[in-house]
Every structure is written in C-alpha cells, then in structure tokens.
Amino acid sequence: MTPAPIPDYDDERLKSLHKLLILDTPPEERFDRIVAFAANEFDVPIALISLVDRDRQWFKARIGLDACETARDVSFCGHAVHSGDLFVVQDASRDRRFADNPLVTGAPHIRFYAGAPLQMPDGTILGTLCLIDTAPRQLDPVDVAILSTLRDLVMLEISGAPSHDNSRAEQV
Which of 8, 29, 52, 69 pairs with 80 at a CA distance of 20 to 30 A? Predict the structure, then answer.
C-alpha cells in the first residue's frame, strides 16, 4: 500500500479546513441529499463527502458506509487531495498503490474509486466528493461532467452561498 503523499502546502490547507468549523459537525440534509443523488446517479453503493484532516478523513455526508472517518494513511481521498485533479482508480485490486490496502482486501472491498477534489476559490483542497464501488468500472466524459457539477454543489454549500438562483423569481 502506498500512503497518500502529504502536499507541501498541507499546513495551510489544514488551517483553511479548520477555519470553516465544519469538521465533526452533525449530519446536514443539504449534504446528505447530494451524496444520495450521487450514489443513485452513478449506481454505486458508497458516496461520500470526505474532508481530509491531519491524520484522518472525516465524512461530512455518507451513503453506504457506517464509519464516520478512516485513517488518512489508508485513504484514497488523500491521494485525490495531493493530485488536485479528479482521481480515478478503475480497479484498486490491480493497482499497486492500493492492492494491499485494508479497505480493498477487507470491508468495504473497494474496487472502484473516483474522487472530485473540493477546492476553495484560493485553490485550497479540503477533501473530495467521492464514489466507491465494489466492482471495477470507469467514468465516461458525461460521468465526469456530472460528478464535477455535484462537486460544485458541495462547494456552494460549504461556502454558504445560496444553492439556487433567486433572480428568476424576482422577474416573475
């Protein structure tokens, strides 16, 4: 198993994450709806909003997973945070970075992972919106576009921006 590399800017990234005061907060319907939609849209058993802290990844919202956090050193999301781009593992059991990862060899038996980085306007990456499946698979360009849109919705919710456009209502 290859633990995710720690970005050079991790101290600043963690300051931004902690400043949001979102870690260890109760579940919120606005985030739960997004992961439920993602799980349904992509037909995956697990969808998460994962925030990568110093030693753990904590799940702000989750479908299909009982755990509320896992260690950062076994996280797929840590790799996505380091890469800064959509991070896709088509078959973790055949990927040397993950084949012996306990999340692959044991429950939840991850095979497919796609993590869209949750990036602040200043470039800080907080974590991911991720999809997990127990079977290998891949994303096509339409899937990538949908996942990117859902990621953008998560970031609107995190930033506190309104999630709908009121300008149309004012015109009526």
Answer: 29
pTM of the model: 0.90
CA angle (80, 24, 133) in 5-degree steps? 40
Q: What angle do CA 35, 119, 96 make, to 5 degrees?
A: 75
Residue 44 in 3-state DSSP? coil
For the chain, the domain total comes to 1
How many whole angstroms separate alpha carbon 15 and alpha carbon 31?
Answer: 22
Q: What is the pLDDT of residue 163?
A: 41
Quick check: is 82 in a domain?
Answer: yes
The residues with which 131 forms a beta bridge, in sequence order, are 47, 114
Residue 167 has pLDDT above 50, yes or no: no
Residue 80: which CATH number?
Answer: 3.30.450.40
